[in-house]
Amino acid sequence: MSTPKRIYLIGFMASGKSTIAAHLAKQLNWTAHDLDAMIVEKAGKSIPQIFADEGEEFFRRLERDCLHDTQEWSNSVIATGGGTPCFWNNMVWINNNGSSVYLQTTVNTLSKRLWKAKYSRPLVSKFTNKIDLHTFVSQKLTARNIFYTKAQHIIDANNKNVAVICNTIATILQIQHLCKK
Ligand code: S3P
């Protein structure tokens, strides 16, 4: 297996993509990128504000544009947004342009994390009780798994510390030798 130029981390909101991207990039001496942060920079406003002002369709176009902006990058770990693989032909594009890793996490873990961080995420900020949020996560994850499971690699990211997850990714991509000791 040759060394990938780009690693795309995919998974549901709050599955740990940005945290893992930052840690893994540091280990590899690569650069971490966050698609959400790129979108915010391009739009000049926060994600809740983009959804409120322009709507989701506009956000998804920006998201695709930002994804395509990563095409020429090398030595990059890219944290995608939770919805990125599920729109346009983004999942096919990702698989054609880098190595994809799905950080699989349970509904319980995701719901607990999202309850604490819901205000920065327009798809979940409306929930006022934990049961409704749990139901939403369960249904959305089932629908999105059709896309997420098209990733080239699927790893169990549930209840594991960041270092263990990064080590697992480096092992499956056969790039352990690049990691700092
Ligand atoms: C979204 C996930 C968010 C962000 C936007 C939409 C989604 O990213 O792109 O709020 O559709 O799941 P995170 O996965 O980083 O929370």
Describe, in short, the structure shown:
The chain is α/β, with parallel strands linked by helices and 181 residues long.
Descriptive account of the structure:
The chain has helices at residues 17-28, 35-43, 47-54, 56-69, 90-97, 107-116, 130-148, 162-172, and strands at 6-10, 31-34, 76-79, 99-104, 153-156. It is α/β, with parallel strands linked by helices. It has one domain (6-105, 151-178): P-loop containing nucleotide triphosphate hydrolases (Rossmann fold, 3-Layer(aba) Sandwich). The protein has a 5-stranded parallel β-sheet, with helices on both faces. α2 crosses α4 (56-69). The protein is globular, with a radius of gyration of 16 Å. It starts with 5 loop residues before the first strand and ends in a 9-residue tail after the last helix. The protein binds shikimate-3-phosphate (S3P). Shikimate-3-phosphate binds next to loops. The site of shikimate-3-phosphate has 10 residues, from loops.
